[in-house]
């Protein structure tokens, strides 16, 4: 365990410098979904490229795709040893509503040992930790115990529309033995988790058009369909009042939870009262017959992410609006297929479309759900690395979120994927006041460093899926 | 009919100057509902005061209320003759969505003999016509055939919250024999109408709160209520799929249409095909069992005027939003009571409120519905004035819109109200590209001038309600 002490010393000594560098990275507003941030995306990619070069990664490149760029780097001098492919993303979510942020989203600020900024935990902070782990090992011994390849993309938050093609075109360059991703959460403060499954994602935007321009609700009201009302009827038809999704065939391919899984989740002792307090609701609401963990890990959802139409300013405007729209996404679980689900959504919308309006449905990008056996040696090794640093048993969990590209890695490269995250569910990913608990930054750096040694103990054959 | 020729000559001679003045008035962005336009409201009131003074009105004043100001002026030297109280408003509706305007809303522009600007027809243009009618009569003969009082307010578009108090406190100052309002539409191009009834207005804003801040739809989705979904369920519950409002007791006090009224409306030969083309819809949609005119003149409505919640920008944001809201207004018909209807709405919302969210309901300002006998001499006289200028029979109609203060005038002053409007339903009141057909500006000026002579032919007793 000598390397643990070495890592510990290095990270303590350089903590302020590392945090300063991370803040630099977080100041770049790399919002992939908004076209006005195209320049910032390039700046973030360049920042990362420079960072790769400075820690000793080689063959560093910014690779073009049909969308935002991919940043690549490797170190391949551990002859005969396994190769770890580290995947992450440098893009972030939009930041509105801006007025709910205590400090500006792109002005990182440490308060109470938490680093506040968009991207602090999802995912710039965690990508940065892998880079610094490489730096620490290189600085101390001049080499790494395993081979590593980094592939950090800029389109995760918009569903990785171009990465699949990139992986296909770069199969040889990306060849490895396992894939490691740090973009998931821990089970709770001080409670590490290795995630063995993720939900997939699919979605549609519904645009409802009534009259060709807004109408006076007095002159026309009562005789012309109101697109907001029509849209509300469609949205309300998507589920019953108990939260079960009412789209024909939606649950057809859902893999039922095994008794073992349900028992394992129960054993985690999830605190629903604490959750209610954390998110500020008096009661939870979800599909009947399932616990909260089951609902969010192993059951699919249909959520309205946004709605718009008519007048939403101060006061009153008695308008009969011309248009209304809603953005809808579904979280999918094995073995639902995103394309099939979109077809079912479209059929449902067509069936429930009210009279007097036209309805346009457009598709968002899709990601398949993913699951991997939790007894794989690379998974178990991750659990051991956590336990060495956190001194508690690691939980083996599934995640409610989606990293759409995980399923693509699985399909194209055929490699086991290890999801070892350092975020906490209270850290407001995708919401105002995103932050990262710095104790997990500090401990996570050591976990990652140790994990490289753990994997060095296996042969390539051991790690075969 | 000598005065008609005189008026004709005067308005022709001064047309360009008059249009120039009206454009000045329209350039002032007097949006009463938006607090940032408070200064513009004062500018518009002052512009009107100067205009009153310049045409020879007396006792001109800007009167304070607890909201926006009222502009008053009179001319009371027609001894023994009736007094006409002219009511109108100098405030206008908001202008969004701005990108749908062909020319800027506060940069008036004449295209194809139509004047485009916010307020061109609703109601600055029509207020201006009354001022210019006074000017013409004063310029030509040094006096008016009747007494007139002008009361032009700045809060009509937000429901006239302070005018009722103003009328009560100024009963003597406002004493008159009839009230004339030009804020309604004609029956169609070249088809004048006198309106004998108006719908009332009431409304609520529904604010739905789920979690205390936006949540990641992957991590929490499926286990926490979505406020947009909850709101959609409430909105969908407001009516059945045929357009009938499903709020308990909503129709209880609705005065049924008489056979005579239904016949009279039928006789107007309303062209539903032309309407569909005008507003750009493939089919009309309204309460079953009623014609379009009946639906919009004599039946109540419940319209969602605006909805908001979650992410509405470009692309996708997989958020489980914390809040959603909707603005709802009802058009009311005799003898519905706005306060009673709000209570029924609140009871309905309480009953249909989904689990897992809190719902706040706030009230908008209210206006009662109004109706007046169409055989009153002041109504019939208005019909004659139109017929002299337009050379076609006048239609006696009801209006789907609301001038909430009309019911208050009726109740407090006990006077017959004559609604003689010059707008056309195609003129985009409350919507982008509001405009005013200048042929109705030209002919309307003469109708108003003639109407003052018509009323001069009656004794005060003739006009008693």
From TrEMBL, chains A, B:
<keyword id="KW-0378">Hydrolase</keyword>
<dbReference type="GO" id="GO:0009014">
    <property type="term" value="F:succinyl-diaminopimelate desuccinylase activity"/>
</dbReference>
<keyword id="KW-0645">Protease</keyword>
<dbReference type="GO" id="GO:0006508">
    <property type="term" value="P:proteolysis"/>
</dbReference>
<dbReference type="GO" id="GO:0046872">
    <property type="term" value="F:metal ion binding"/>
</dbReference>
<protein>
    <submittedName>
        <fullName>Succinyl-diaminopimelate desuccinylase</fullName>
        <ecNumber>3.5.1.18</ecNumber>
    </submittedName>
</protein>
<feature type="domain" description="Peptidase M20 dimerisation">
    <location>
        <begin position="196"/>
        <end position="356"/>
    </location>
</feature>
<dbReference type="InterPro" id="IPR011650">
    <property type="entry name" value="Peptidase_M20_dimer"/>
</dbReference>
<keyword id="KW-0479">Metal-binding</keyword>
<dbReference type="InterPro" id="IPR002933">
    <property type="entry name" value="Peptidase_M20"/>
</dbReference>
<dbReference type="Pfam" id="PF07687">
    <property type="entry name" value="M20_dimer"/>
</dbReference>
<dbReference type="GO" id="GO:0008233">
    <property type="term" value="F:peptidase activity"/>
</dbReference>
<dbReference type="Pfam" id="PF01546">
    <property type="entry name" value="Peptidase_M20"/>
</dbReference>
<dbReference type="InterPro" id="IPR051458">
    <property type="entry name" value="Cyt/Met_Dipeptidase"/>
</dbReference>
């Amino acid at each position: 365990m000598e390397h643990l002490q070495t890592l510990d010393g290095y990270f303590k000594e350089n903590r302020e410098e590392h945090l300063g560098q991370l803040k630099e990275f977080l100041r770049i507003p790399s919002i992939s979904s908004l076209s006005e941030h195209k320049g910032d995306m390039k700046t973030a990619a360049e920042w990362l490229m420079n960072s790769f070069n400075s820690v000793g990664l080689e063959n560093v490149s910014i690779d073009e795709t049909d969308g935002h760029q991919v940043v690549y780097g490797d170190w391949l001098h551990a002859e005969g040893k396994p190769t770890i492919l580290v995947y992450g993303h440098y893009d972030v979510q939009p930041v509105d509503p801006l007025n709910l942020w205590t400090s500006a989203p792109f002005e990182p600020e440490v308060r109470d040992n938490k680093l506040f900024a968009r991207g602090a935990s999802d995912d710039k902070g965690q990508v940065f930790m892998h880079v610094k782990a490489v730096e620490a090992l290189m600085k101390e011994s001049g080499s790494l115990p395993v081979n590593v390849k980094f592939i950090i993309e800029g389109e995760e938050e918009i569903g990785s529309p171009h990465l699949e093609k990139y992986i296909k075109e770069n199969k040889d360059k990306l060849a490895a033995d396992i894939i490691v991703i740090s973009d998931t959460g821990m089970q709770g403060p001080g409670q590490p988790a290795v995630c063995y499954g993720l939900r997939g994602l699919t979605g549609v935007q519904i645009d409802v058009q009534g009259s060709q321009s807004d109408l006076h609700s007095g002159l026309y009201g009562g005789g012309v369909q109101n697109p907001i009302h029509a849209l509300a009827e469609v949205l309300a038809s998507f589920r019953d009042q108990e939260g079960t999704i009412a789209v024909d065939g939606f649950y057809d391919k859902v893999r039922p939870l095994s008794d073992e899984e349900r028992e394992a989740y129960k054993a985690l002792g999830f605190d629903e009262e604490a959750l209610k307090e954390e998110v500020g609701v008096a009661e939870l609401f979800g599909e009947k017959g399932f616990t909260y963990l089951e609902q969010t890990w192993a059951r699919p959802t249909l959520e309205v992410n946004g709605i718009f139409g008519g007048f939403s300013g101060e006061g009153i405007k008695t308008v009969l609006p011309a248009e209304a729209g809603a953005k809808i996404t579904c979280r999918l679980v094995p073995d639902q297929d995103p394309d099939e689900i979109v077809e079912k959504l479209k059929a449902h919308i067509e069936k429930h479309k009210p009279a007097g309006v036209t309805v346009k449905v457009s598709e968002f990008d899709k990601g398949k759900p993913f699951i991997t056996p939790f007894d794989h040696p690379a998974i178990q090794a991750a659990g051991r690395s956590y336990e060495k640093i956190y001194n508690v048993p690691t939980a083996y969990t599934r995640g409610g979120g989606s990293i759409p590209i995980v399923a693509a890695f699985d399909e194209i490269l055929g490699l086991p994927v290890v999801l070892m995250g350092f975020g906490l569910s209270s850290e407001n990913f995708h919401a105002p006041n995103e932050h990262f608990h710095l104790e997990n930054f500090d401990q996570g750096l050591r976990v990652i460093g140790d994990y490289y040694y753990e994997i060095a103990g296996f042969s390539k054959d051991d790690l075969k899926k």
